[in-house]
Design goal:
- Helix content is about 40%, strand content about 10%.
- It has about 180 residues and is an alpha/beta fold.
- It folds into two domains: about 100 residues, 3-Layer(aba) Sandwich (Rossmann fold); about 60 residues, no CATH class.
- α3 links the parallel β2 and β3.
- α2 runs antiparallel to α6.
- The model has no long low-confidence stretch (mean pLDDT about 80).
Amino acid sequence: MDFVKAHLNSKILVFLSTCKQVIFFVVEAFKKWRPGISLKCLHGRMKQERRINIYSQLCEQRFVLVSTDVAARGLDFNKVVDWVVQVDCPEDVASYIHRLGLIYKANMKRIQPMYGLLSALLVKHFELQELVVKAFIRYMQCIHIQKEKDAFDVLQLPIDEFAASMGLALTPNIRFVN
């Protein structure tokens, strides 16, 4: 959020792992925060025609596009966007390279934890609870099915801290992690 606010005059592409994360952050959380820049999303549940339309809009307009890896392949964003932000780790090196646009070293003094903002948002808009729980569980499933268990081992992750970072007061029960 701080990065977006610091670059309001930029075109930004943000990558998340799952459709549910994209929908939660774009359709619900960011739109309620109103960061001062338009937000749009791109994910695999959208028809190809709509995805191409959003890409065309990004070529002409300034907004933040939050996407799954569906935008990493087949669409050339290198000359279209100013910044590429990878919130989640891609599933493999090839996906990382496809997502890659610019490498940016964050100014650690400007970074603020999101959990307080998200937690307050979830209290104010209780209807978002179900969406954020679904996004959390789907992300955990994505990590769980990764082949490279040396890097993607759900049992080694700080799950409680991740849940808190999404604004959740309690970590949702995940059947396959018990």
